[in-house]
Amino acid sequence: MAVLDKYGIVSFSTPAMGDMFKCTQRELEGRDVASLIPGLPLKTLTPGYNLAFADFWGNKGELLKFKGHSPNGERIPLAVSLNKLSIDNTPLILLRLLPGSEHAIPNGEFERLIESAKNKTDVVMITDTTGIIQAVNDAFAQATGYSREEAVGQPASLMKSGLHTPEFYSKMWHTLLAGNEFQAVFVNRRKNGEIFHEDKNIRPFIDKSGQITHFVSTSHCLSESLRTTLLQLHHEAYHDALTGLPNRHLFEDRLKQAFSRALRRGENFSLVYLDLDSFKEINDTYGHTVGDEVLRTTATQLKACVRNEDTVARLGGDEFALILLDIHRREDVEIVLKKILRSLEQGIHLGNKRISILASLGANIFPDDGTDSESLMMRADFAMYKAKSDGGHGFHFFDKDEFAGSAAKKRLAELLTAGKRLNIASCTSEQSTRH
Ligand SMILES: Nc1nc2c(ncn2[C@@H]2O[C@H](COP(=O)(O)OP(=O)(O)OP(=O)(O)O)[C@@H](O)[C@H]2O)c(=O)[nH]1
User: Residue ranges of the GGDEF domain (predicted)?
Assistant: First the structure.
C-alpha cells in the first residue's frame, strides 16, 4: 500500500510494497507513481484529474490490472485499487496493490504458498471453504494475539468484532464462493478484546480439478492515522454534513435492517416522513445561515424525541425521515409525533425573536401499510402530503381508502415509474404558512 500526493508522487509506502517492488521503502518514496506503474493514468501535471480519477475508481471499488516496473527493471503483474483520502484537509490518493493478475492461486502452489507466507510482514491466514483456519504465519500472531496453536482449527470468525453488518459477510461469502477475490477493510478484534483494522484481500485457492479448496487471506493492519481517516471517509459517505444525521443511503440501509429485524422478531415498526412548513420563507426572510440553524435544531430535537435504536435521517433539503422500531399500536407513534411537533415549536432564538419550527408529518406502520420499502416510503410521503394539504403543522397516518380515491395516487404511480423522488408536496396547491 502507498499514499500518493495529488501529483502522483509516493509520499509513504509500506514494507510490503517494498517487497513487491524488490526494493526498500526509501527507494519508492518520492518517486512518480507513473515510473513504477506506467499504465496508471495519473500524471504530475494533472492533480485535479488525479484526485477525481481516484475518487471515481474508489467509488466503483474495482481492481485495475497493470504491469509494475521495479526500480531494477523487473516486470511485476499487479492488481491496483485507488481511493481518494483527505488528511488534515490535504487531498491524497490511497494506492492498494495486490500481487499478480490472477484471481485464483495457480494449481499446485498451495504448499509453496504456506512456505512463502512464513517470513512475510503481511498477515496471512488460510482457511478451508467453511472458514475454519488451517494455517497462519508469524505476523498473524503478532497482529491478533492468537498463537498458531490457538488459531488453527478455529473459525475465522474468532476475530469477529460484531461491528460489520451481516450483509458485509454475506457479500464476502458470495464473492468468494463465486471464485472471485474479496477486498475490504475489516474491523476485527484481538484476543485481548482490542479492535483493529485490517486492509484485507481474500483469494480462493483452486485445486487441479478446478474446485475451490481454501481461501487465502493476506492483510496488513492500518496505522492509527490512516484508520481514523478511513473512518472519517466512511462517515462522510453516509452522513449529512450539515446536521450529522444519516443521509438517504444510510437511511435506505437502516430501512432494510428494520424490515429484517421486524420479520425476525415478529415486530412492527413505523416509518415517518417530515417536511418543514414554509422553510423557504425562513431562508428568504432571515437568510441561509438561519435556515441552516433551523435544520440543525430540527435534527437535534428529532433525535431527542426518539429512542437510541430508532433512526433519524435527513433525506435532503427540509425533508427528514424517522424509523421507529418495535411499535405496538398507532397510539405509540402518535405520542412520538406530538412530542416532535411540540419540541420543534420551541424553535430557535434570534436576538429577542423566536422562530418556531413547524412541520408536516406522515406516518405508516409495517406491515399494515406496506410490506416493501418502496411502498412504505411512497405511503409515508403521501400521508405527509395530506398533513400539509390539511393546513400543515400536524401529522397524518396513511389511510388506504383515502389513497385509493386520491388523484395523487396516479401521480405517485407516474413518479414511481419514472424512478423519481416522490416529492408530493409540490403537487399540492394548499400550503401552510403558519408560524
Ligand atoms: N438553509 C438551507 N436551506 C436549504 C438547504 N437545502 C434546501 N434548502 C432550501 O429549502 C427550501 C425547501 O423548499 P420547500 O420544500 O418549498 O420549502 P417550504 O417553504 O417548507 O414549502 P412547504 O414544504 O410546502 O411548506 C428551499 O428554499 C431550499 O433552497 C440547506 O441545506 N440549508
Answer: 267-400
